[in-house]
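Bench notes, afternoon.
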Amino acid sequence: HNSPASVVVVSLARSLVTMLVRTPLARAHACISKTRAVREKLRARGSSHIGGLHNVGVHGGLVGARFVPPSATTSSTASATTATSAGDSDANAQQPAKQTMTRTADAPAWPQRSLLCGLARPPSDEQTTAADVQVCGWVDRVRKFGGITFVDVRDGTGLLQVVAEEGETWHERLSTLGREWVVHVSGTLRARKDPNPALPSGYCELADVSSVTVLNLSKEKLPFPVTHSEKETEEPREELRLRHRPLDLRRPEMARNLRLRHDILRRLRGTLDTYHERDGCEAGVAPFVEVETPTLTRATPEGARDYLVPSRVSPGSWFALPQSPQLFKQMLMVGGMERYYQVARCYRDEDLRSDRQPEFTQLDVELSFATQDDVMDVGEALLCATFEAAGREAPPRPFARMTFEQAMERYGSDKPDMRYTGLVSYDVTAAVKGRGFKLFDESKEVRCMVVEEGKSISNSKLKAPKGAVAAEAVAAGAGGLLFTRVCGGGEALEQGPAPAREALEADDGAGLKALLSALGSPADGSLLLFFCGPPAQNSKCVDRVRRYLASSELGLLDGDAASEAAVLWVTDFPLVEYDEELGRSVALHHPFTCPNMDDWATKSSANLEDVRSQAYDLVLNGVEVGGGSIRIHREEMQREMLAALGFTDAEMEEQFGFLLESLRDYGAPPHGGLAMGVDRLVAIMGGCDSIRSVIAFPKTAQASDIFVGAPGPADPKQLTELKLISKHE
């Protein structure tokens, strides 16, 4: 032991210990002083005995102390170290025990539990009690009734009541516990005399407590209540919850949401893993394979800004975080995987809202040798599995289908909420144009929405600028809202602008008859709302007014209607759309979507916007929860598509050379796929207004994480290594 090597090792060890404990000792000093002060205060009051404090130590800045009843021996307590406050007294003690608090460097205790709180059930009839049951968790609340103390201990599964009567060894200890303290309690499980049927574990309790160990403390006054046992008039502010996110995750709502997310993801994976077994591989259905794709890749044009990552080893070059695994999953099809899936993390630098995050999760699926119907069948199986995982009845299959053109004309949206199907708009341009009413005659398109329950909506709400319904149309871009009502047994009009009615009733009511015929002969008393303008503007107005009427005026989403599931496939999307800012056409989905082959055969540069695509979106209650397409698998068609979008040959090779090479040289199979938004699905299944409620550590609307302080400044040394600043800056 006296060798030079031993001396060096001992010297280094002493230095390390000194460095590790100096700061924790300083932080612990105040807590130790307070413990001594409370002890002396109790002694001054003449307490018959003050429980001993043993194994007091400092561990990472926390004071370790175990409260031991006077009947216990020092040796029986030397094996556990806990963090708590002083003040125990033992009412059963006959003589004050001469025990003192000593400091040690023993490690904290990591006690094991034999039962989860929420899974506790009364013992069987043959065995009325279960002895030596151990639970761990947080103190949910402490209640005192007369000489009895009740402590609700909470873990991830639920609550369990711990009870001790005055005179029992651990009664005083339990009565001094604070909210959200971390504890380990041992005792006997027994049936409760007064069960609480609201809790699964409410039929039993932990009594005859044999030990109470405080594993850690919490702040005396927390930023917001964690459980419903603390009555609050309103929900804590989201900013406050995000700032203290670990505490927020203990709240029952958040814990439920994250467990629901886990259940849904597990069911989705299981559905894909066993999908081929349903039909049998002998029928030509290959099994799915889960494959991870890179998160450090290169930028591709997918509609949003990329998050860029500088390369240290290649100064001036940048990685991009993937907006989706789109090209990689197509390369997996070229690589022969045939059926792939992945729970993928995706990143998009775009303006945020309640259903968007800069980083999000999607279930990505791709299939070789599959038709559009094959892919949609997988999507239906996945959505039904989501409902089942959430404990809800799955919607009947096959799901309804509607083309993009039909959805936009009838509902003004490519993701219509079909829980209320009665609010439909019709193109009545041919019926009303040329009748002598200037607004109709000069409008590029006239659409009319029929509101059969419109009697409940007063005229004042339909008149701009103060009318609530008219205000919705104006907010969507309309100059106002023209309305009238059907009367006379469904053969005449009343109210609204007289010039419009007079123009329609002229020539023996030719215009009126044409209008009512185009609307499908609406019932007497129906309210007619007219939208006059360009088709795109009319669609926005129809969509916004329709949603407002359903939710705020007609009560179509009240009660059970809100929880109903209306599922719809929207198909035949346009291949491209015109971008006013860029002054050219851009891909509506992405440039790798296969066009409708009939439309593509007759296309020209002048009518490219009339070409439909083999794309499809899955809509649930007015929210797009998934979507996909059949992909281009021929190099010549892919080049033609990119050229139509304005890419030069050089730009094609620079950005998509690897894709074009794979399609041309490696024998790419026909393939298609879809992706489903996990965050949105879980939010809908959990009844949440924002996807931030189903993500453990989300970003704010400003794309920041206020809990960890991200984004934040980088160390200048790192920036120098990345060649982003020079050594002289």
